Description:
Helices cover 31% and strands 25% of the residues. By secondary structure, it is of the alpha/beta class.
Amino acid sequence: MSDLSNATPAPLGGAASGTPAVEMDGIVKTFGPVTANAGATLSVGAGEIHALVGENGAGKSTLMRVLGGGFAPDAGTVRVLGRDVTGWSTQDAIRAGVGIVHQHFMLVPTLTVAENVVLGSEPRRGLQLDGRRALDEVRALSERSGLRVPADRTVAELSVGEAQRVEILKTLYRGARILVLDEPTAVLSPPEVEELWTVLRRMRGEGATIVIITHKLDEVMAISDRITVMRHGRTVERLATADTTPTEIARAMVGRDVVLPSFTSDAVKAAGEGALQVRDLTVRDARGVTVVDSVSFDVAPGEILGIAGVEGNGQTELLEALAGLRAAVGGVVRIDGRDVGGTSVRRRADAGLSHIPEDRHRRGLILDYSVADNLVLGQQHHFARRGVMDRAAVARNAAEKVAAFDIRPPSAALPARALSGGNQQKIVIAREMGRDFRVLLAAQPTRGVDVGAIEFIHGQLREARAAGKAVLLVSADLQEVLALADRVAVMYGGRFVAVLPRAAASEEVLGRYMTGAQPRNDA
Ligand SMILES: Nc1ncnc2c1ncn2[C@@H]1O[C@H](COP(=O)(O)OP(=O)(O)OP(=O)(O)O)[C@@H](O)[C@H]1O
Ligand SMILES: [Mg+2]
């Protein structure tokens, strides 16, 4: 970057070449006692794809909210295309062409795709929303950008991948030229990730500037031009992607060497009867459509059975039915030989079932409760004496788990809402794995968590296996499944279409089953 060549700020709207698209300097942002940004800096060149990485809680999302006008910084300056915009509002940011796609979706499920895209800047005919024009405009934009969406369907009917494309379209519709994507790939299948890369590269080719937050270092290597690494609210490293390696990035993030997840499984041989036995389990959704279709399998003590599959093929419903969160219309579920079919979540927990749910906001946590209370959720009856909560025992449990699972910040009195996404996930993991259990259902256990925490969680899962627990792992991340599982089942259209020993499962073979290109292998 020839930073010296352009001392004069460009006028609004057009950056002189060399003026960074985004320059954040000395950004400080605190929340009560928590310092989220402690003097962070970020410089993003116009027309580049810039990866922002760092451990859970490093302050990435906060910094991007400061950029998007969601928070005013306590100190520091924000420049966009050379103009000082420190403390601007979200409306100002949108008008200036800064679009942010947040970590958690913000669409209205009951409205159509087109209505969601234009919401807030609707084309009007007189006082009326011009629905026809909205539909045409959204279709044209979808065509032009390569973001394929069914414009006339409601958002409730979309897959997560489609919903995300709608979020991006929404920012483009408002004329975003600087686009921030906060962990966009956490919910995407591998082909959807590839599609997103194609779209982002095309946008870059047309002069857009993109900041992307991700914990997946192979994605950083694949898509970014430059990288900013944050740690503890500060910027610790700026790297050119072409000159660095995933190992070097991980070291900068964590401050020490990290063992990156590998493709080799240190599988031990499973022994004994299925600790989890499932026979002909069938589940229907609210509309009566069969979403889990007569599925049967065993998970032995000391075994990790991985379930691979594109999201939306019944994995979520299967795990919810096993956990007792969703009724099955038929079939048998046994934990350690005990039939738990039709019993409550609590009964199953007492029979030895632990569950890391996929959607930590809906199922795993009560965001307004303290970290300490979330750490005993569902197990309150074990922390009560004569019907009264034993607060001292709850506090002792919290202190232990916060230390053992490195939950940050280490203050158990904070509401769960105040923790970063990855640290919220650690609360769920600590609660479900830090107790005595026989069978673990782990749904997307490392979604949204940083490399250090992935290493830790994978270590915990391997330890559980070594201790003779049965683990059922569902992950959209094929590398994760291949790194951990002893056997891999592929779910497609509500059925197990293949169950393969790890040695026979490659990304290519799994991919064929996942997309339905290879039919079920039991004929
Ligand atoms: N609204 C809030 N109230 C209180 N504390 C907050 C709030 N938002 C963020 N924090 C705290 O600020 C710190 C930085 O959080 P932030 O969400 O920016 O991290 P992050 O790098 O995006 O992490 P992750 O990778 O887990 O998403 C964390 O310690 C978090 O607990
Ligand atoms: Mg974040």
